[in-house]
Amino acid sequence: MGGRGWPRLAAATWVTGLVAAGLLSAAGVAAADTEAQGQSGATATLGGLKTYGDAVIHGDGGDLKVAAGLFEMSVDGGGMLQTYCIDMHNPTQKDARYQETSWSGTSLGANRDAGKIRWILQNSYPQVNDLAALAERAGVSGLTEQDAAAGTQVAIWRYSDGADVDAVGSRAEKLADYLEKNARDVAEPQASLTLDPPAVSGHTGDRLGPVTVHTNARGVTVIPPADAATSGVRIVDEKGRTVTSAKDGSRLYVDVPEDTAAGTGGGAATPAPGGAAGTATFTVQASTTVPVGRAFVSESRSQTQILAGSSESTVSATASAAWAEKGPIPALSAHKNCAEGSLDISAANTGDKPFTFELMGDEHTIPAGTSRTVTIPLQEDQAYDFTITGPHGFSQRFTGVLDCRTEGSGSGPSAQTVGEPRPATAGGTAGGTTNLAATGGSSATPVITSVAIGLVVIGGAVLVLLRKKETPASE
Questions:
Q1: Furthest-apart CA pair in the chain: how many Å?
Q2: HSE of 351 in the Cβ direction (CA atoms, 13 Å)?
Q3: Within a 10 A sphere around the Cβ of 392, how many other Cβ atoms?
Q4: Long-range contacts, stretch 240-249, CB < 8 angstroms, 24+ apart
């Protein structure tokens, strides 16, 4: 397979992050008390590269020897995950925190071969842990765990990164060729646990929602707002009955009594003249195996991973609710759209007056009873951090990094996979030169920093486009 370019220069990440910081400061938005971006599923900490062999990446700048294989992650609340890399041009970061996400929020969203990667995961190690059977299918003899992990990772890289890469070991290489040749499209797996939509709003005295549970778990525990006992805010079903457990497809509502005091339910809001207002958040939690093929991303710019195996693990999802007696009543959520290179903010207004807000210098109005999507085009690797404010003290913050591409720029090798234990770098000797993976700073850092600061001055403005389509808001 032909090479697709070498890793992005470290300066690109630094520059776009600093440009974003400059633009967001110029927007002049207030600091936020809460952050809600609809994160759901499993949250885990990277443990390192555990089962691996060697591979060689061929590129215009020469050959680079790297470690290729399985990572392990520990799940918050209990459980272990095994993953492969789908972002070979970036290093991993030690103890990086990862969040389960949909393919649309990663490079897989624009990758027509994403389904083939899932087929490889389902038909190779560790899902197929009978190495003799796997070896027979691939026409290999004496396949070891290291061979199987390396061969599987190489086959994935050929589809995830468009890489010209070979396994060093002959057995691993034969397995990689077999997997690449036989891969077929398989649909994206469902989330382990998510709530849709992740934000609702309505009038005091109403049931706000519905919020639908989507999960592969047999059941979930519903955790009410932290101050539910004093505020009277309850999580209920369609008939108004208090809910403590739910399952896939369950429709949940936030019941807000008419006499609910302002600023109750968690995430307090300031009362406005003419009526009380407030916000609340609730959580659903379950124990399940995370579906093979789910993507995992880190806001620390640690390389994107895809799930190869899961023990019984703790997963959770959170939804927010906002209410008021009258006026505009917004509900906001956001998701990364890698196919469009943007962050999409879903804005609904269930109030009786328009909801107007300013974002990055542009003003947007959501008429009463409608919803729209505000699209924010972002550069690759661009950090974003902004807050949308509204009536009754409403404030919601969105932060992250747009990390959608795997292809690099530049003329030679750069940082590759960083793993544990040896080599904590995945570099090696190839073509008579030694290339060690970078884990962060380097001797070039002062130069990169000075260049980045200079480029901030000429950073272009980010445009915000408002889709014209209007749809009825949630009741």
A1: 77
A2: 24
A3: 28
A4: 240/207, 245/219, 245/220, 245/221, 246/213, 246/219, 246/220, 246/222, 246/284, 247/213, 247/215, 247/218, 247/219, 247/220, 248/213, 248/214, 248/215, 248/216, 248/217, 249/212, 249/213, 249/214
Kindly report whether the peptide bond that precedes residue 126 is cis, defined as omega within 30 degrees of 0: yes
What tokens appear for 353 in the block? 């007056």
* Dihedral-angle region of residue 295 (phi above 0 means left; psi in -120 to 50 means alpha; beta otherwise): beta
Residue 331 tokens read as 């509900």
φ/ψ of residue 360, rounded to 5? 50, 45
What digits encode the pLDDT tens for the residues 433-455?
Answer: 222 222 223 333 333 333 333 33
Q: CA nearest 216: which of 172, 171, 182, 249? A: 249
Element at 212 (helix H, strand E): strand 207-215
Give CA–CA dist 206/292, Å, rounded. 40
Q: Is the dihedral of CA 303, 308, 312, 316 positive or negative?
A: positive
What is the pTM (predicted TM-score) of this model? 0.78
- The tens digit of pLDDT for each residue in 196-240 reads 999 999 999 999 999 999 999 999 999 999 989 888 999 999 999
DSSP 246-275: E-TT-EEEEE--TTPPTT-SSS----BTTB
Q: What DSSP state is assigned to residue 242? A: B
Count of helix runs (H) and strand runs (E) in the chain = 7, 28
Q: Which residues pair with 53 in a beta bridge?
A: 68
Using CA atoms, how far residue 373 sits from 196, 246, 354, 465, 469, in Å, is 16, 29, 15, 9, 8
pLDDT tens, position by position, 377-423: 899 888 889 898 888 778 889 988 888 888 643 333 333 333 333 32
Task: Give the CB-side neighbour count of residue 460, counting CA atoms within 13 A.
Answer: 7
